[in-house]
């Protein structure tokens, strides 16, 4: 040991200089020998706890001491000068707190910077350093060789040292043990990791000190469990790991047997209010009172029996397979089954089964709970979740749809996909004599009209609960039954569609075989929940249809006005325009001949031009001019219109902001007419706005249409103005003819589009132009 410390001093001192304060202390403590670190002057700069105890000084005093001042005046062997870099093998008497001087062998090493590390080893009364080292090494060998626990030293090359106790643990001799690969004694799944771990810690000089339980494998392949402590040290100048092993396999086995024996008792006691059964691979060993009462058998009819007749037949095969495959991983498993009482009642149970050993035999401890009520509640929750999912899907379809036929077809398909083994039929009353029937039979959806004469019974509000009654389909002359019967369906239920007022239709569901009470109940609840929504949808569609018809009539009335004005304009345009052209020309000549009257002639010419523009607008109403069509980029056209109108907007200090689609929108249009329509609308917005206000132009695409929104912050309009805004000659501006919007509306209509205007007085107006893509 002395030689190990001496030759390892260089590595220890080098490692000490590289690590932080915490690791420095840890390194000194792991050396296992009283140790001091000094600077080039011999002043103590660090020490471990063993050296501190030997010297017997206070910490504050020890830090101020020179190592050579701690020596007695009499030196037992000549030492070198304290600044030498050679090792000093000397024996000194140290000045301690005890009156009796103590003799220690001091082995010192100085590095090139004259920093020193000093190991203090008791000499046991000898003054000869060599003899002291021999005594210390002999003590260490005796300690290792005579130890009752296994001791080993392992390095990069394998085992460096093993003792007899370690060889006894693994049942091999020492020579064979030293040749053995240490990692071959570990479980195969840990070998690579632990080899990498040990090698890296040795190479990187990482300090280790720990105590663990580890599984080892003897050369005869027997597993043992050992308690192992290990720590870093030096051996023959090499950084190594020393370990101490104690075989605790027998202790573990005895402890486990005690735990297993206690487990049976604990399971029975802790489950006193549960249903407990203990059995092995052949028969029932124990059944508590609760289980016997649950299955209505006496205890002697259960204990000692191997038929397990109280477990439902469909679960017995799996149960017996479980009995013959014990679970050895100390975990529990859950076994769901149905128990049959002596009277034949079925009860759903879940058993938590654990495996243990009792009298050297594998046994099962099963603790069961009756979950019949819980299972029914879970079924009810699943049914409710499924119903809500289907109802929400249907209500979403109803909310998003605007056409009854498409809506009911989607609805019947949703139900058909959710209940694929059923045929479904949903009918609505179209008139006193006609029903519209939507059906989904054999995964095919269809719609038909059937006379009310073919129905067996009239629909009444009381039929709302009629769906609970099952009907048998037979050869029937009733038209409502024929589709189901021909498709091979045997049974059906019928449910009236009843809203808030009167029945408005019925729902039927047919199936071929089997007991489907749960699904029929689910369908019934779904139809009841959606009936009011369906009735509201049909009412809403009826109102929308009337509104559409009214709007169409108003539109036709407006177009008739356009047509009438157009015919009048065509008839009088030439009769009025030609004389006005002559008058304008003469006024121009008179202005040149009479410059003093120029203002009057300019006014005359301006009025003639205004009248001429009005006639032009008349002609625009009259002409059906959508004939010069071409493919054109609407974004570009809008930009052209804004450029043409921007000067007038700037003169009024009005800003025009745009938010146009980034991609090109190409439409087949009459470019000049669409430009005229947009200019008229934008002109109205400019006229309605005042300085500082903003006009916003947005474009978008929605449901196959290109949308242009022109929004201003102007004076707006009240409802009475808005009602007539599209009519010719209607204007709130005295100097306008009131034809601009009429012309724009007619142009957009001729392009199969529409104009929608919304306005709030004193807040602004929004004009939406819709053009089909």
Topology:
Blueprint: H1 2-18, H2 21-30, E1 35-38, E2 44-47, H3 49-55, H4 59-62, E3 88-94, E4 102-110, E5 116-122, H5 129-145, E6 150-155, E7 158-162, H6 164-170, H7 174-179, H8 188-203, E8 209-217, E9 223-235, E10 238-247, H9 249-270, E11 275-279, E12 284-287, H10 289-295, H11 313-323, E13 333-340, E14 346-357, E15 362-370, H12 372-400, H13 404-418, E16 423-429, E17 434-441, E18 444-451, E19 471-472, H14 479-486, E20 491-498, E21 503-511, H15 517-593, H16 598-622, E22 629-633, H17 634-651, E23 655-659, E24 666-670, H18 671-688, E25 694-702, E26 705-711, H19 719-723, H20 740-750, E27 754-760, E28 764-772
Parallel strand pairs: 23-25
Antiparallel strand pairs: 1-2, 1-5, 3-4, 4-5, 6-7, 6-10, 8-9, 9-10, 11-12, 11-15, 13-14, 14-15, 16-17, 16-21, 17-18, 19-20, 20-21, 22-24, 25-26, 26-28, 27-28
Helix pairs in contact: 1-2, 12-13, 12-15, 15-16, 16-20, 17-18, 18-20
């Amino acid at each position: 040991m002395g030689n190990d410390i001496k030759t390892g001093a260089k590595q220890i001192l080098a490692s000490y200089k590289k690590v932080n304060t915490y690791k420095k202390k840890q390194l000194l403590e792991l050396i296992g020998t009283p140790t001091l670190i000094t600077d080039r002057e011999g002043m103590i700069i660090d020490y471990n706890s063993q050296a501190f105890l030997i010297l017997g000084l206070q910490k504050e005093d020890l830090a101020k001491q020179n190592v050579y001042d701690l020596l007695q005046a009499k030196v037992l062997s000549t030492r070198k000068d304290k600044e030498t870099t050679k090792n000093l093998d000397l024996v000194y008497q140290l000045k301690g707190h005890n009156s009796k001087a103590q003799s220690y062998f001091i082995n010192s090493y100085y590095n090139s910077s004259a920093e020193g590390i000093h190991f203090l080893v008791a000499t046991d009364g000898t003054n000869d350093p060599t003899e002291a080292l021999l005594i210390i090494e002999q003590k260490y060998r005796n300690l290792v060789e005579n130890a009752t626990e296994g001791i080993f030293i392992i390095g990069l090359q394998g085992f460096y040292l093993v003792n007899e106790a370690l060889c006894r643990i693994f049942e091999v001799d020492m020579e064979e043990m030293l040749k053995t690969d240490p990692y071959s004694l570990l479980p195969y799944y840990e070998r690579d990791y632990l080899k990498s771990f040990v090698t890296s810690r040795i190479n990187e000089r990482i300090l280790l000190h720990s105590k663990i339980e580890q599984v080892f494998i003897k050369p005869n392949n027997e597993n043992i469990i050992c308690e192992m402590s290990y720590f870093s040290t030096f051996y023959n100048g090499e950084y190594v790991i020393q370990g101490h092993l104690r075989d605790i396999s027998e202790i573990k086995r005895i402890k486990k047997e005690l735990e297993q024996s206690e487990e049976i008792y604990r399971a029975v006691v802790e489950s006193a209010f549960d249903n407990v059964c203990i059995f092995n691979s052949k028969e029932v060993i124990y059944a508590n009172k609760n289980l016997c009462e649950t299955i209505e058998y006496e205890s002697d009819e259960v204990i000692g029996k191997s038929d397990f007749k109280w477990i439902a037949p469909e679960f017995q095969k799996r149960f017996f397979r479980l009995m013959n495959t014990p679970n050895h991983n100390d975990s529990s498993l859950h076994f769901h089954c149905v128990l049959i009482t002596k009277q034949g009642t079925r009860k759903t149970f879940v058993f938590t089964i654990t495996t243990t050993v009792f009298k050297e035999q594998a046994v099962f401890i099963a603790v069961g709970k009756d979950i019949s009520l819980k299972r029914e509640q879970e079924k009810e929750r699943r049914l409710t979740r499924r119903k809500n999912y289907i109802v929400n899907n249907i209500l979403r379809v109803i909310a998003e749809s605007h056409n009854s036929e498409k809506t009911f077809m989607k609805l019947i398909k949703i139900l058909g996909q959710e209940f694929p083994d059923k045929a479904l039929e949903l009918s609505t009353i179209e008139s006193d004599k006609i029903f519209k029937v939507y059906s989904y039979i054999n995964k095919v959806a269809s719609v038909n009209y059937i006379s009310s004469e073919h129905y067996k019974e009239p629909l009444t509000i009381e039929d709302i609960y009629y769906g609970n009654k099952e009907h048998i389909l037979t050869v029937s002359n009733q038209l409502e039954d024929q589709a189901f019967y021909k498709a091979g369906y045997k049974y059906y239920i019928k449910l009236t569609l009843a809203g808030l007022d009167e029945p408005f239709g019925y729902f039927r569901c047919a199936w071929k075989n089997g007991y489907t009470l749960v699904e029929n109940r689910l369908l019934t609840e779904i139809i009841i929940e959606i009936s009011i929504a369906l009735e509201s949808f049909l009412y809403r569609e009826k109102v929308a249809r009337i509104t559409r018809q009214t709007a169409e009539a108003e539109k036709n009335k407006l177009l008739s006005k356009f047509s009438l004005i157009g015919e009048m304009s065509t008839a009088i345009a030439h009769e009025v325009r030609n004389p006005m052209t002559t008058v304008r020309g003469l006024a121009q000549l008179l202005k040149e001949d009479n410059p003093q009257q120029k203002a009057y002639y300019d006014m005359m010419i301006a009025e003639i031009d205004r009248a001429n523009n009005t006639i032009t607008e008349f002609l625009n109403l009259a002409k059906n001019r959508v004939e010069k069509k071409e493919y054109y980029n609407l974004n570009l056209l809008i930009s052209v219109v804004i450029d043409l109108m921007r000067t007038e907007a700037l003169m009024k200090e009005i800003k025009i902001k745009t938010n146009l689609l980034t991609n090109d929108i190409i439409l087949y249009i009459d470019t000049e007419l669409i430009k005229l329509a947009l200019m008229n609308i934008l002109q109205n917005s400019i006229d309605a706005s005042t300085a500082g206000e903003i006009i916003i132009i947005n474009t978008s695409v929605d449901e196959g249409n290109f949308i242009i929104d022109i929004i201003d912050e102007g004076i707006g309009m009240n409802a009475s103005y808005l009602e007539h805004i599209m009519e010719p000659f209607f204007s709130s501006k005295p100097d306008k003819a009131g034809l601009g919007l009429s012309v724009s509306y007619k142009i957009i209509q001729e392009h199969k589009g529409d104009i929608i205007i919304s306005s709030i007085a004193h807040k602004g107006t929004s004009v939406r132009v819709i053009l089909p893509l």
